[in-house]
Design brief:
The protein is of the alpha+beta class and 577 residues long. It contains 22 helices and 20 strands. Strands 13, 14, 15, 16, 17, 18, 19 and 20 form an 8-stranded mixed sheet that branches. The chain has a 5-stranded mixed sheet with strand order 10-9-8-11-12, sandwiched between helices. α9 packs antiparallel against α10. It is globular.
């Protein structure tokens, strides 16, 4: 690859954190990380050493993967180097990996910081700061009393060890706590590592306040420092992916459309570590739920001749029930996460799917098409509900054609089966905040409404009532028609301006549906209160019936067909729900 070709390829790369790989045929020559992928790759056009010059000359292909943070780029680079052993990378001789936290596969699990997790363990991480991990684990043990001893030391004890006296362990080994109560504490610790910081932060806050009231200021200060560490534990994106005891391999899929072409990005984790990323091209189907159709086609074609993972996280639920039944029969958990660490991973997959290189400035083309200034900032709106229930609205933001996640907003709307009225309320909410100076985001150059002439009219009515003057168009799903105040426009499928609108529209739709499903299926507390229903049974119920509403409507016989649900549990489900 010569310098001119390398510069041309670099110009199409994103200016975001990530990793890049130089290839020769099917072999990976070099893996690197960067704060700005485009600038870093461009620097290879003028190599500073003979070794780098030889690597660039041999390379015939270039791949990249974007990440949310520099830390994620660091972890992904390290794991890719270990996986591919590229010839031109320098590797540490001890090949040390990043620390993980495991809960062992034992009736009374042990919590431990490790670099080599045990078979069957529930694994969280990797993490870059071992000191912070140790602080969190110690605080969790002090709060919930999880044991840290080996299975050998645990077995056959007739009195508690020193950890019990120090308040680090609740001593299940000698029956000081029942195993069922201990498992409840284990579930609380699991929730913390899955992103629920309050599980640990709340008890620490209460202890700090109590110490201050009793004038134990040194203890209060120590608790304050520990609380600061805990509250920042999930704030820097250090963990690549959290693991579950029955999910050692997890794939994360995000799909993006560009005219009649589609891209599916796949992130893959093993034993809790994000180790690989691939990108795949497909022909985009016609119709309304094109992303859902793309994912359904990809799932069949990609996994038909490959080993299935234990779980698949998706940006949208596939539209083919047969595909979901096939995966369920293969015991593959399929989830469309709404919040938490899994949702962040899906967003990262979407970010990679949308990062396919393009040389056309679609945003500028869109401005020309609509006879407005270049809309550097575009906000998209959509409404989602189920027959007037759990009505929500999404407000997404794109800057220079790329999603600006920090500026996404969502809103619960009044329960009404009125698409036009719901859209009017959603846009009025955004407009009022802008006009009254209560909005911390800048005004957009264009508003995009998911829908047709009716939705556009409702949005324009809201803007007129509030007095917020922003160019507004709509994009109808059925024929991909652009609806403006001047009429309907049928742009070519390969028009880059249309592609920009489609990306914004599809993301607004995804974000709205995700929030609606989160509210509709927020059933963990309801099901958790039913005797005999644990996390695995809850997952099987939702996989089988799709939602809590369907669980409520199921007969006792249908409920008993679900593995893990016996006669008593089925009766309890019917009576409690």
């Amino acid at each position: 690859m010569d310098a001119t070709e390398l510069r041309d390829r670099a110009d199409a790369l994103p200016r975001e954190p990530g990793v890049y790989q130089f290839h020769e045929d099917d072999a990976v020559l070099y893996v690197g990380k960067a704060v700005d992928v485009r600038d870093r790759v461009r620097s290879y056009a003028d190599p500073r050493s003979a070794r780098v010059r030889r690597m660039v000359r041999r390379a015939d292909a270039l791949e990249f993967a974007v990440t949310d943070t520099e830390t994620q780029a660091l972890l992904l680079e390290a794991n890719l180097i270990k996986r591919h052993t590229p010839r031109f990378n320098v590797r540490l001789k001890d090949d040390k990996s990043y620390p993980l936290v495991q809960l062992t596969d034992h009736p009374v699990p042990r919590i431990e910081v490790t670099r080599d997790p045990a078979e069957g363990a529930t694994v969280f991480g990797p993490f870059t700061d071992k000191g912070r991990v140790d602080t969190a684990v110690k605080a969790l043990r002090e709060t919930y009393g999880l044991r840290g001893c080996s299975d050998h030391k645990y077995a056959g004890r007739d009195r508690p060890c020193l950890d019990y006296e120090m308040g680090l362990c609740s001593a299940p080994c000698t029956g000081e706590i029942a195993e069922a109560e201990y498992r409840t504490d284990v579930e609380s610790v699991t929730r913390f590592f899955e992103g629920e910081t309050g599980v640990l932060a709340d008890p620490l806050t209460r202890a700090m306040d109590e110490a201050a009231r009793e004038q134990e200021y040194e203890r209060a200060a120590n608790l304050r420092d520990r609380l600061d560490a805990i509250e920042s534990f999930h704030g820097e994106g250090e963990a690549a992916v959290s693991g579950r005891s029955d999910e050692r391999a997890v794939d994360v899929l995000g799909a993006a459309l560009e005219g009649d072409a589609a891209t599916v990005a796949r992130l893959h984790s093993e034993r809790g570590q994000l180790v690989d990323r691939t990108r795949h091209s497909l022909d985009a189907p016609e119709g309304e739920d094109r992303v859902a159709a793309v994912l359904a086609a990809f799932l069949v074609q990609y996994y038909a001749e490959r080993e299935l993972p234990d779980a698949i996280l998706l940006s949208e639920r596939p539209d083919d029930g047969d595909v979901l039944d096939w995966l369920a029969a293969e015991d593959v958990a399929v989830r469309v996460p709404g919040t938490g660490r899994e949702a962040k991973l899906v967003e990262l997959a979407l970010k990679n799917a949308r990062s396919a290189p393009t040389r056309t400035d679609g945003v500028a083309a869109l401005g020309d098409r609509l006879s407005i200034d270049r809309p550097d900032r575009i906000e998209g709106f959509d409404v989602s509900h189920g027959q007037g229930k759990h009505v929500v609205g999404s407000n997404v933001c794109f800057v220079d054609g790329s999603a600006e996640k920090s500026d996404y907003r969502r809103k619960k709307l009044h329960e009404a089966n009125d698409d036009y009225g719901n859209m009017r309320d959603l846009v009025r909410w955004r407009a009022e905040r802008a006009v009254e100076g209560r909005e911390d985001r800048p005004d957009p150059g264009l508003l995009l409404i998911d829908g047709g002439d009716g939705q556009l009219g409702a949005a324009r009515d809201a803007l007129g009532e509030v007095g917020w003057d922003v160019p507004t168009v709509a994009l109808a799903k059925d024929r991909e028609l652009v609806v403006t105040t001047d009429g309907v426009r049928d742009w070519p499928d390969d028009d880059p301006a249309l592609h920009v609108l489609q990306r914004v529209r599809d993301e607004a739709h995804r974000f709205a549906v995700q929030y609606h499903q989160t509210l509709r299926d927020d059933v963990s507390t309801v099901l958790d209160e039913v005797p005999g229903v644990g996390p695995q049974t809850r997952r099987r119920l939702l996989r089988r019936f799709g939602s809590v509403e369907n669980v409520r409507g199921a007969s006792v016989e249908d409920l008993r067909d679900v593995p893990g649900v016996g006669a008593k549990t089925a009766e309890a489900l019917r009576s409690r729900l």
